[in-house]
Amino acid sequence: MKRLFLLALTLGVLVHEGTSSFAQQSEFLKMEDEILKLLNEHRKSIGKSVLSVNEYIRKEAYLHSQNMAAGKVTFSHKGFDERFNRLSGFLDISSGAENIANGPLNAKHIVSGWLASPGHRKNIEDDFNLTGIGIAQAPNGSYFFTQIFVKSADKPKVVPAEYEAELLQLINNHRRSLGLPALKNDDGIHTESVMYSQQMAAGKVPIGPPGFDNPIKSLIRKYNASKMVELIGYDYPTPKALFDAWMASTKQRDIIEGSFNLTGIGVIQSVDGKVFVTQVFLQK
Q1: The dihedral sign for the CA sequence 188, 175, 208, 2
Q2: Which of 228, 233, 236 is nearest to 259 (CA)?
Q3: Max alpha carbon distance in the chain (Å)?
C-alpha cells in the first residue's frame, strides 16, 4: 500500500467556550460537511471525482484529532501506520494519505490553508475516492482537524433486492431437497435485517451477530416467536458465494436447515463496495 503523509498546518487558534457536548458534536459534524463540500468543489473544478465519506475512516480521523486535543500525542502524524493498518481490516486499500491542522473552527480557513500548501494540496487532488474528517477541541479552546484519504479498490455494484431474492431461493431450494418447508419472507423481519446491515456498513456496530440490546432482538417479542437466530455475511459479492460459505460451516448449515418458518434478509453495500448481509431466521 502506497502511503503519503505531510507536515501539519498551524493556522491559529480560536477560543470557543460554553458549548455543550451535544451541540459541539453537531457543530463539528456540520463543519466536517462544509470542509468536504469545499474540497469536492475544488476536485470537481480540476476534473477529479468527488470523495465519499466512509464511517470507518471518519472514526480513525476523529480519534487522532481527539488524541492530539487531549495531548496524548503531539500535533503530528504519529500513529499513521497503525490507523491505516486498522482500516485495512475493513477496506481494500491501495494508497492513503493524511492532512492535519490546528486552527479556527472555520471550513474556508482550513481548506484554503491546505490548498496553499503544495504537499497538503497534492493529497486533496490525488487519486483517492474515500475520506473521513474528524474535529476535536482541546481544553484550551484550540481545534484539531484530521482528514484521512484512501484509495480503495472498486467493487461490483449489487442490487440488494436481487441479492436477497437469490440467496433466499438458494436456501429454500436446499431445504426442499431435504424435505423441509420453505422459509417465508416477512416484510417486518426484512426491515430490521436491512437496518442492522446498514449499522454494520456505517461502522455503528461491529461486524457480526447483533448484541442483546440491539433493536433487531425485539423481533422475538413482536412475533411471539419460540426462537430466533441471525446469520451475518461480510464481503461476499454474490449470493452463491455467501451460501457456499455458510454451507461449509456446520453451525451455519444447521441454522439454514433448522426448524424455522419465517425469514428476512437485508443486504447493504457500503460506499467502498463491501457487501453486508443480515439474515434472520424465526420460528413463529
Answers
A1: negative
A2: 228
A3: 72
